[in-house]
Amino acid sequence: MFNGKAALISGSTSGIGLGIARALAAKGVSIMLNGFGDAAEIETMRADLEREFGVRVLYNGADLAQSDGAGALVRDAEARLGRLDILVNNAGIQHVAAVEDFPLERWDAVIALNLTAVFQGIRAALPGMKARGWGRIINIASAHGQVASINKSAYVASKHGVLGLTKVVGLETAELDITCNAICPGWVLTPLVQKQIDARAQAQGVPVEQAGRDLLAEKQPSKAFTTPEQIGELAVFLCSGAAANMTGGSISMDGGWTAQ
Ligand code: NAD
Do 196 and 116 share a domain, yes or no? Predict the structure, then answer.
C-alpha cells in the first residue's frame, strides 16, 4: 500500500509535521521535508530519518508565506522524488492579539501561510495525483477550525478557511481515488504552543509547568497533550485503504475540546 509512495510534509522540521514525516517514513514512504531551522540540525534530522527507516528523505527549505512558495515546493518534490502521492499541508503560525490591536501585516502573514499556501500546494499537487490516479491530501487545521478563542482572529479565520477548502477539494475529487481531509488537533506540546505557555507564565507570574497545566485545563477536558506521534498515526490511517471513502471531512484529536 505505501511502498513506492512519496509524500511532502510542509513545516516538518519540528512538531506535528516531523511526527507525521516519521510515521509515513516508518511505512516506507519517501519524504520531502520542509521548514525552517539550523541547516546542520536539519541535515542531521534528514540523514537520521533516512537511516532509521531506509527510505529516501529530501529537504527543501522554501518559505511558504512567499507567493507560490508552496506551488514551487510541490513541483520540486515531484521532480526530485519522481512523484507526489501524499501532500500534508502542516506549516502554520500563530499571532495573539485582540482584533483592534491586530497588526495587518501579522494578519496577512498568518493567512498567507495557514490558508493561501494550503490552496497553492493543493492546486499544484492535483494534476500529478489525477494523472497517477491516486492521491491523499491532509490539511492540518485545528480545534480552532471548528470553534474560536479570543485574541486569535487570523488563526481562527485561517483554520475555518482550511476546513472550507478541504470540503471543496473533497467534492472536486470525489469520484477519483483522491481524498482530502483535515485533522483538527487540540493542544499538542510543540514549539508553537510552548511559546504560548511561556508567555502565559510570564504574564501571570506562575511557573511554566503551572502555566501548561492551566492552558490544558481551560480548553482540553482530557488535561493531556495530544502527541505528534498520535497525529502521525492518524495521518497514516487517512492514507490507508480503510480511509479511501473518507473525504472532505475533518477529524478531531483534541481531548474533548470541541465536544463541550
Ligand atoms: P511548530 O512551530 O512546531 O512547527 C511549525 C513548522 O512550520 C516548523 O517546521 C516551521 O519551521 C515551519 N514553518 C513556519 N513558517 C514557515 C514558512 N513560512 N514556510 C515554511 N515552513 C514554515 O508548530 P506545530 O505546533 O507543529 O504546528 C504545526 C501545524 O499544526 C500548524 O498548522 C498549527 O496551526 C497546527 N496545530 C498545532 C496545534 C498545537 O497545539 N501545537 C494545535 C492545532 C493545530
Answer: no
Give the model confidence (pLDDT) of 213-234 as tens digits. 999 999 999 999 999 999 999 9
* Choice among 59, 155, 187, 225 that is catalytic: 155
Q: Determine the residue of 38, 45, 89, 90 to mutate for testing ligand 1's pocket, defined as the one with the most ligand atoms within 8 A of the Cβ atom.
A: 90
What total number of domains does the chain contain?
Answer: 2
Whether residues 167 and 202 share a domain: the answer is: no
Domain assignment present for residue 25? The answer is yes
Q: Which atom of ligand 1 is nearest to the CA of 159?
A: 34
Q: Is 63 in the pocket of ligand 1 (CB under 6 A)?
A: yes
CATH number at residue 62: 3.40.50.720
Residue 93 sits in the same domain as residue 58: yes
E strand spans, 12-72: 30-33, 57-59
Domain holding 89, by residue range, is 6-187+227-254
CA–CA dist 253, 92 (Å, integer) = 17
The question of whether 59 is a catalytic residue gets the answer no
Judge if 196 and 80 occupy the same domain.
Answer: no
The answer, yes or no, to whether any atom of ligand 1 lies below 6 A from the CB of 232, is: no
- Determine if the pTM surpasses 0.85: yes
**Where does the pLDDT of residue 3 fall: very low under 50, low under 70, confident under 90, or very high at 90 and above?**
confident
What distance in angstroms lies between residue 131's CA and the mean position of ligand 1's atoms?
A: 30
Does some domain include residue 259? no
In this predicted model, which residue has the larger pLDDT, 111 or 3?
111
Do 66 and 98 lie in one domain? The reply is yes
Find out whether the beta carbon of 253 lies less than 6 Å from any atom of ligand 1.
Answer: no
Residue 181's pLDDT is 99
DSSP lists the bridge partners of residue 251 as 183
Residue 1 has pLDDT above 90, yes or no: no
CB 185 within 8 A of CB 143: yes
Q: In what order do the strands lie in the sheet with 135-140?
A: 57-59, 30-33, 6-9, 86-89, 135-140, 178-185, 250-253
